[in-house]
Design goal:
The complex is a heterodimer of chains A (about 400) and B (about 220). Chain A is built from nine helices and 18 strands. By secondary structure, chain A is an alpha+beta fold. In chain A, the strands form four sheets. Chain A has a six-stranded antiparallel sheet with strand order 9-10-11-12-13-16. Classes of the chains: A alpha+beta (about 400), B mainly alpha (about 220).
Chain lengths: ~400, ~220
Amino acid sequence: MTMPTRSSTTVVPIAAVDRQTALRFAQQQPTREKATQVYRNTLAVLAARHCLDLLKIPTNLEASDCWNPFSRLVADVADLPVIGSGSLECRPVSPEAQHCDVPPEALENRIGYLVVQLDPSCQEATMLGFASSAIGESLALKQLHPLEALLIHLEALSTQQTVTPFVQLSQWLHKVVESGKEAHHSHSGLVWQTVDTWLGRLPEPAFAFRSFQDIALAKPERMQQIIEQLYASQRLGHPQADIVPLPSDADFKAALVQLIRTTADEEVRWKAAEILWTIDPGNPASGMRRVLDLGLLLARQPIVLMVAILQPDVDTTSALESRFSILARVYPLAAEGYLPPALQLAVLGQDGSLGLETQSRERDNYIQLKLRGTLGEQFSLRLCLANEVITESFAI
Amino acid sequence: MNELDQQLSQLICHTCAHAKSSLERRNSLDQLIRQLMASGKLWRRADIPEADFQEILQKSWIYLCGNLCEATTAATPYDATRSSVLTWINAYIKMRVLDYRLDIERVKQQRATAKTMDDGNVLDPIELIPSPVDPPPMLQEVLAWVERDSNVLRRIYLRDRPDVNGKTLILRRLPPHETPWKQLAQEFRVSETSLQGFYRQQCLPRLKDAGRELGYL
């Protein structure tokens, strides 16, 4: 495969008036480091805006953080609001750079990242490329996409003509191998991240399934006990015919996988999946989990939404279509580890009708709802707290 | 999917079903290009010379033929799950027109600056920034706010690390003591990811609050 030719990188001449603007902003800063940061960020943003102007894509720099003196002072920002889409982060790099760091202030509320190389005399800016997300707070320059990708991304966002208007959960199951590299966007522009990526962001796993914390280190006898108990718990409320028997060999993983795939009891299915997540995180039978960081969007409470999907085997003894099992959980991100009380989680059907609902009490580590559906079915998850609402829509 | 998109979709399937240098593929590509041109949905610029635009269009067809089914000059081939073929090729055309216009600007600018730069030395414009004298009033106000709210800020901290709290981190990220993340991570013996995550979720929102309180946001 031949490398793209030089003509596919876009070189923008920097006008003297833009350098003057950047200088003016830089002179407001109290330290040389801050002044340099602001100077370069300003040039990167102005160069990007020039390109978008020529492409007739409307922007609103006056509404950006980097055009606000306070934000410039207290944060490292280089955001360019694109009208109808969201803010594009324009990061400056030097010619020798191999990668581009993305500061924490630019890791949320961004529709994508443009990397702008400034030449030493700041006469020219080269658009090195675009990325729609920055997993790991750093962008490898070799992996950037050409600017055509930005145009396609903007068109998809602004016209809502995304090929997948809702998050398609069944697709998560097909991406098991590529976890971490694929980023899926909710319609609000936030990014669904894989659990592994997420676990790296927190001081300790937020999904401490506290009753299972000791499972990874459990002695085989204890594991055996846990699995037997799980199999036995199927009897509660189910006719004898639907009970899945415990396999005679001692392979814990296989026993859990069988339970996940064939039990009629949803409670048990998810408990088995949780154990499998703990002892064998990459196992495809445990489905896929992704996390949406809602930041402080809901009544200024830091919370995270996790959605997990399982695909049990098709029921071959009846004419039922294959049904997927879905789990939705809301976790707190506060240091105290509890959800704020009275946080409601509800499932809404395709027509908006209210299905299941649950609410947090005083000291809940998380709240959850489970549902089942067939391929293509749509539903929404609605989170409410103190009269504020966030809704995320899905198609299975 | 409208009728045109469906037709184009089918044509693309047909095209890519044939081997790269086969006659069938070439014919199919020709047909696809003719249909795209006849659709009236190709992006056009009236304000660049027609001959130049035709040249850009030719480049675009070469790109299409080379990257529709497999990637030859692009990093990835056309991906129907990301966009329609019209969106894809129009994005390419728009970028080539952009490059064309930027080239003209650059030539103009080079001619203009050639007249003014006499010593040929590359000037680092950052040298022009004078050394800061007094801290700006805005900074003093923010630092005062941190002092005033220090009890609250100290109570927000990284799990099990009361020393890595809101007050400490904000003061280490604001001027005049602004410290790179790498260094902070080493000092506190915490991962950059944890620090940045904490800063993003707990400190930045509070700084925004400060900005609003002080009337700057």
